[in-house]
Amino acid sequence: MHELLTAQSGSKKLLLGNEAIVRGALEAGISFATTYPGTPSSEIGDNFYRISQETNMYFEYSVNEKVALETAAAASTSGLRTMCSMKHVGLNVASDALMTLAYVGVKGGMVIVSADDPSMHSSQNEQDNRLYARFAGIPMLEPADSQEALVMTRAAFDLSESYGLPVLLRTTTRVNHSRSVVELGKLQQARVRGIFVKDPLNLVPVPMVARRLHIALLEKLKKMRVEADISPFNRAEGQGTWGVVTSGVSYNYVKDAIGELNIANQVQLLKLGMTYPFPESLCLDFIGKVEKILVVEELEPFLEDMLKVTAQEGGVAIHIKGKGDKLLPRYFEFDPVLVKSAMAQFFQLDYKPPKVEIPSDLPQRPPNLCAGCPHRASYYAVRQAFGEGGAIYPSDIGCYTLGLLPPLAAADYLLCMGSSVSSAGGFSKAQDKPVVAFVGDSTFFHSGVTGLINAVHNDHNFVLVILDNGTTAMTGQQPHPGVELTDEGPQPPKVDIQKLVRGCGVDQVVVVNPLQVEKTVATVREIMEGAPGVKVVISKSPCPLFERRITGKKQKVVFRVTNECDMCRRCLDELGCPAFTYCEDENECAFIAIDEHLCSGCSVCKQICHAIKPKKKSA
Amino acid sequence: MQTWRIFFTGVGGQGTLLATRVLGEAALIADIPVVVSEIHGMAQRGGVVESAVVMGNALSPVISDGEVDILMAFEPLEALRAVRKCSAHSLVICNTSPVAPFSVASGRDQYPEVSHMMQTISHQVNNLIAFDARSLAREAGSELSVNMVMLGTLMGHAQMPFDEKVVKEVLSTRTKKSFLEINLKAFELGYKV
Predict the structure, then answer these.
(1) A357 lies in some domain
(2) B48 to chain A nearest CA, in Å?
(3) Same domain assignment for residues A331 and A465
(4) How far from the centroid of its chain's Cα atoms is residue A28's Cα?
(5) Which residue of A has its CA nearest to B44?
(6) What is the pLDDT of residues B132-159, one digit of tens each?
(7) Quick check: A122 and B42 CB within 8 A?
(8) A43 close to A18: Cβ distance less than 8 angstroms
(9) What is the value of pTM for the model shown?
(10) Nearest chain A residue (CA) to B34
(11) Is the CB of residue B28 less than 8 Å away from at least one CB of chain A?
(12) Are A69 and A185 part of one and the same domain?
């Protein structure tokens, strides 16, 4: 059984923040969860998936975050306790639903997890989703570590139910992906079947209903402000005349800094866990007790701005600072030295950060497509047909974005999930170069398909290559509607990509296996020369890591470079496969080799070079 | 209580994350406060993988430049890249067997001389243990057990708040049965470095 189900109440575990969130939800009696995977939130869904296999809880990998939120909202309105988790940019996709869900409200407790990614470890931006709590008008909790992630998740369900509003649990990468010691509580029996009570005058926000609901929402928020003032997650620590206000992971940096700067007797710390509605009375009280305040929070000056407003409304003139010169930046995540330096600067303490020498000119090690990745073969074929400067290549979000760097250089433009398809249409209408867009299978289902319908509708002119590797590879091989390889064996896809594309009105559709190089190049050339319009190439070959995991298929061959090699370097310069190495022997004579341990046996290199030959893989 | 700030760096696929997790679980058993931070997702595709274990009297999950007590470098080039994390008092445990980045493998970049890199590091820190963990892993039965060799060396050479038996206990529950014997042997070989 799943570890989060068997672990005893009262026991201590070293849990990832994401695992603690799942356990907290189970302790609150959750029975319905949805997600679209995205780093750093993915392990929440993956754990729910495994738990749903062993219990009567319902879980789904939804097609995108908007769908996930709407599905969960219905379950919650039926009285079930539900969770919907996503990465920060996922909440942009779901925001249309979110803004009105705040009006319509929920019945069963509902927690929306937004996993923000300061420093953009795995993201295209680092927006601060705390602003969504204020924007939509929903309560928000910000855990600082795994223990709080568990306790706050559990409490969030009660909070949600008592006010009939979804609660935003806002985390950051260092909470989601840190492990710390967690004391577990008791699992709760979940209610698994709900009842929907018809109530259109509260649940269908036509203007006359919505006007009333908006006023009701503002009333709820007013009441909740009192809740925030007395919340156990908002507490003052220590006693001194220097004030520090903080929330989330920054609390840990502040605590360590207070110890290391030896200022425990001077500092009073206000640690906020429920940060929206803003605990105004509590903060005004705090403001009255200190001489000046430093606000330590990553990204936007969310608490800082609200504290300043609170001070102004309370008629208190006090120095409140956070973001700014020599203090704290509005970009990237914090670290202990950064916070120590800012505190020392603000409170005029003597502290010198460690001197750091950064070695220069070291070879970089950017992430790369794996050996045997079919995306490489697809990119190679398209580049053979179009050349580097011959076309514009809008790309999308997934492993295949790693094709950005040379030698593949197959990404020219990217905004967000699905933007490859729509931007391709825009390019085709705005300028004269041919346009070839790349989108992954999961991303195509997520939000590429709407762009495709738009392109057909508006007579756009481009080639869309759907890189169909049969899974959501980047985030850990989660399923999507087109999956064929499953734990239960091969199945026909529930939604067939080719039929879907044809159903969108695209007539010029071909399916290729990118590992057959010559055929793929010829097919791409053919479609390129066909009549103008929207044309789709479905480049279909499973992610080899996924295929090996699911089917247990053993690799039989590897490839080697024979002495027929004339050092033309095409393999190195055009494929960029990480299994290849450029070497020199004792006489400084150059040669090229393939690392047998890395070679996945895809045979693409063999098809572009006569000197590369197969050999049996040694056990 | 003292604080132990241990920083792990390596290349995707070298098993740094398992090593950090094992150390974290050992601290839990020994009842030492511990925070482990990991990075998942995009970075793991053949790129640099960094993680941290902070034990004792600290809450911060990440370690700043210049504040690492022990640097566990699974790869020599990454050791040099991460030496910014160290102070003169740091201990560096470094596997000297290189994993060429793609720019080097494709002949566009030169891999720096390992002995030269080790020299640079030893000028910056007082304690450097540099050895070929890959060949010890091979000796133990699998190149994949470099992470266990490294853990062994850590337990054999650093002043830790618990002894190696605790780590072995975790290994027996956290690693696959079929690899356990190899892992324990790799750990032993690393311990004796």
Answers:
(1) no
(2) 6
(3) no
(4) 25
(5) A367
(6) 999 999 999 999 999 999 999 999 999 9
(7) yes
(8) yes
(9) 0.97
(10) A180
(11) yes
(12) yes
